[in-house]
Amino acid sequence: MTRKPTDLASRLRRTKQAAYRKAVPHLVIIARAGTGKTTTNIEGIKYLKDLPVSVTPSPQQQAIWDSIAKSRGIAHTICCVAFNEPIAIELQRRVPPGCNAMTMHSMGFKAVARHFDLSGDNVVNQYRVQDIIAELLGRSIHEIRRRDSDLLKATEKLVSLCKMNLILSSTNSLSTFNEQLSRLAAHYDVDLNGQTDRIFDLVPRVLERCKDVTKDGCVDFADRIWLPIALDLNIFCYDLLLVDEAQDLNRCQQALALKAGRRLILCGDDRQAIYGWTGADSDSIPRMMKQLSLTDQGCEYLHLTVTRRCGKAIVREAQKIVPDFEAHESCCEGLVLLRQFEGSEEKTSYHRDVKDGDMILCRCNAPLVSECFKFLRQGRKANIQGRDVGQGLISTIRKLMKGPGPAIGSGPQSPPVSHAYSSFEIVDLLGRLSNWLHLETRKEHAKRNPSESHLIALQDKHDCIECF
């Protein structure tokens, strides 16, 4: 059969575009705080599509636009990936017609829903992992929540962390997988409550069962990005995929981005990678830069360093940590005060300078707990943000109260944590707390790669409980 000339021309055009596409490098933009990265990307897409732009670019912005424009004529499908749903909705309103904007989870879910033919209001079940645990144990979820809540919480947390960090039992030996679980539990402060063997036995079974969506017809939040990678599902691949807040991607999201874009433009600030505690990869940007550099396309790097958000004095302070951070000439001067206080007494402490609505920050929790109590004793309103802090402390206190040795407050009805204990019981609890810290610290130091962050967290938890 003779091919029509139009068919041949179409084939030649596609071949030429494919070769051209391979020659266009990926782009990583290091964008500091307040440097206009979203505006730069949106206007860059307009520039790519030969549409009127609404800002006069700085030299740094023009360099980024020129790089984006290398996809001119070959980027027929474009998607902007936002950090969360509200930002994605706002982004969809601002991007040029014909461009998509969505979260990474929305993008992954499209592939999952298409593959498993999911539809309706009940396809996303936030309790899916708990239901699977109950199914595997052959018990009622209500009974497990009542009698085995520690097992349930720890298993559910580790399953989620395995998904975010792409730790799969099927690709590791049992010993290697268990070692990875131990590191996850230590790094994210997952309390195993003396049930390590039971939890480590459950986690791989739950992960395997999570892959079988046809059995329960639903997924949870983490499944939406994990299943396309774990099951190697077909996912729509955009000619140009722009990813915002790239420093906050977890390992699973990184893999999904590589799968969903022929050319990637990653934008983020490697000096603002502060979401590691949620499962994000603190090395996301350098890791992706390395991976993209090894592709046939290669990778180029550009910067946005001039902020319009921060005062000049604030920028000078930040430059001690981030030297390339610059203030735009239009920025106000701003104010940074450094005050040193001699002691903790009211007359010599910083308390007299604190006003209602102020926020006090510290990299550890114990000093915040101590200071919060001081303000309360002064009759001033104060609270600590973060429910997980209190829950973690209560869990540790309950574990210490149970043993070893006679349980503190034991009797016909063991009192709650809020019970008023005698001075003897408190001394006993503090002794157990000290022993617990010593034992946990020794266990961490005995590991092949002790985690400094976990050691700091252990000491901080000890100090927090002492504050009470």
UniProtKB/TrEMBL annotation:
UniProt-recorded name of the protein: UvrD-like helicase ATP-binding domain-containing protein
GO molecular function: 3'-5' DNA helicase activity; ATP binding; DNA binding; hydrolase activity
Positions in coiled-coil regions: none
Organism from which the protein derives: marine sediment metagenome
Signal sequence interval, chain numbering: none
Domain UvrD-like helicase ATP-binding: 10-311
TM spans (from-to): none
Short name of any one Pfam family annotated for the protein: UvrD-helicase
Keyword set, alphabetical order: ATP-binding, Helicase, Hydrolase, Nucleotide-binding
One GO cellular component, as annotated: nucleus
GO biological process terms held by the UniProt record: recombinational repair
